[in-house]
Amino acid sequence: MKKSLLAIALLAAAFGAAAPLTASAKDISLLNVSYDPTRELYQDFNAAFSKFWLAKTGDKVTVKGSHGGSGKQARAIIDGLDADVATLALAYDVDQLQEKGKLIPKDWQTRLPHNSSPYTSTIVLLVRKGNPKNIKDWDDLVKPGVSVITPNPKTSGGARWNYLAAWAYAQKHDGNDEAKTKEFIGKLFKNVPVLDTGARGSTTTFVERGIGDVLLAWENEAFLAQKELGVGKFEIVVPSLSILAEPPVTVVDKFAKKHGTEVVAKAYLEYLYTEEGQEIAAKNYYRPTLASVAKKYESQFPKVNLVKIDNDFGGWQVAQKKHFADGGTFDQIYQK
Amino acid sequence: MSIKTPTQYSSYHTKVARSRAISEPVWVRWLLVALMLAFLTLFLIVPLVAVFTEALRKGFDTYITALIDPDALSSIKLTLIAAAIAVPLNLVFGVAAAWAIAKFEFRGKSILITLIDLPFAVSPVIAGLIYVLIFGLQGWVGSLLIDNDIKVIFAIPGIVLATVFVTFPFVARELIPLMQAQGKDEEEAGLVLGASGWQILWRITLPNVKWGLLYGVILTNARAMGEFGAVSVVSGHIRGMTNTVPLHVEILYNEYNYAAAFAVASLLAILALVTLVLKSLVEWQSARIAGEQEQALS
Prior knowledge:
CATH architecture of chain B: Orthogonal Bundle
Low-confidence stretches of chain A: 1-23
Radius of gyration of chain B: 23 Å
Mean pLDDT of chain A: 90
Helix content of chain B: over 70%
Strand content of chain B: under 5%
Distance between the termini of chain B: 11 Å
Structural class of chain A: alpha/beta
CATH class of the largest domain in chain A: Alpha Beta
Strand content of chain A: 15-25%
Mean pLDDT of chain B: 87
Oligomer: heterodimer
Number of helices of chain A: 15
Largest interface: A-B, 26 and 23 residues
Largest sheet of chain A: 7 strands, mixed
CATH architecture of the largest domain in chain A: 3-Layer(aba) Sandwich
Distance between the termini of chain A: 79 Å
CATH superfamily of chain B: MetI-like
Number of helices of chain B: 14
Structural class of chain B: mainly alpha
Number of domains of chain A: 2
Number of strands of chain A: 11
Number of domains of chain B: 1
Order of helices and strands of chain B: HHHHHHHHHHHHHH
Helix content of chain A: 40-55%
Order of helices and strands of chain A: HEHEHEHEEHHHEHEEEHHHEHEHHH
Shape of chain B: globular
């Protein structure tokens, strides 16, 4: 008798406590599944967005993050990691969410400005202080005795941008002779002692474990390593030609609908395009797309001659098939 | 009428072995000891010291801050939950399997033994992928699960499943040889005297193997808390939600947060040390009891 009374009292208390909560502010949880080097960016951005959303709607948003190699993360979402938003390294991985998982509509990339890429980046070369191997451009990477660190293009988005940037350079210098280009890339990968699965793993290999003479890195990752990890220990070398990397973002419709978070998820991504969002991106060394912020941070980013994935490689679908699918150029050169 | 347990045999053998070893030349003995010590220092002591020095490099405050960080606390909680479920499950399973294998003859026994060893034989990554294949959204029952709002992988159930799988064999592997060596004479005697199955289990079989059982539990627990590979595949790596302690260490390390990474890693190192101490205690205790029995018998 006493026990049941207690239970009723407890239940009443629970309902009493729950009722006012549901009536006023909501506690919302968002999951952002992202690629490897965006940890610092989204830690800053999530805090800013929570503040913004609280002020706007009175709801408290907690954004949880998961980071890893872009391809691996896409795979996890397809396998059921229920991300509300996906912020990956390249469009092909987001395409997979559509093709393999049917989680987003086909036209996902047109839903937000700039091909759904709120910030861009490029690929640069990070060398040790004083540039002891005198690395100036891509062709210095194929010299014997130069040890190059890059992640695995099969799992890492950054690594695919690295690969294509090197390819674009070689292609231009070999006068479009594909056999020669392949030979160049083959020599380059002969100089790679470790293939980590994600960009962050490679940076750790290069910076912390001290392996390699040059790291092929996202510009943002190179800045981070140079300015925050080993001040004065590294130098950024801007190659004569690189690639415009556009990391796209999307709401994962199927999961967001299930969680009832479509509105917040959309607002979260749109906030990336606002001045505040762009400032945070620029501070984390991503190239902003908003003109006013881009101008403000102009001096921070070196001017690079950039090829585009859509113009020079026919888009990610074509590039992926040709280079990174099973039997693609990467397999051909790596198996030799 | 004395039945010699394996411990008795081995203590007898050690005595013989030792007297032979002593007849080796002095320099050979010293060389072997020096080699062993060098090896131990290089592979065990140096890394252990390194973990603690790195963890405390930025001072004790940073160390504590890293441990009471909400994400770290949630990873500790998750690890404890996974171990709290995996250990009892494998305890029950291990006793049942060892009982069946050691005390009964049946068809397919060798297949059962092989199956129990399977988690040792396959790579933990494969163990994780199996669950992704079954419970993933594209897997066999994935869409069924999502329609009913049940989350298995990339959530706590998946982590528990993976942990149970990799720690499956420890208890059974520990008990089977012990039970086989003890034979079934005592159980048969109990049966003849009219004991029920439960009475035989509680009064004869379990008391006979309790030290082996404890040893198995300690090993299971250590592995459950330390497992990385299988859990990594099914975790989804969501901060503060699906990261266990080993995964949290990796994340911190990848975030260039080395002091914090080593601080959390030091928890695992402490766990390992505690495990070793417990293990030695158990071994010492069971050897002592075996010794007493030997004396009583002679």
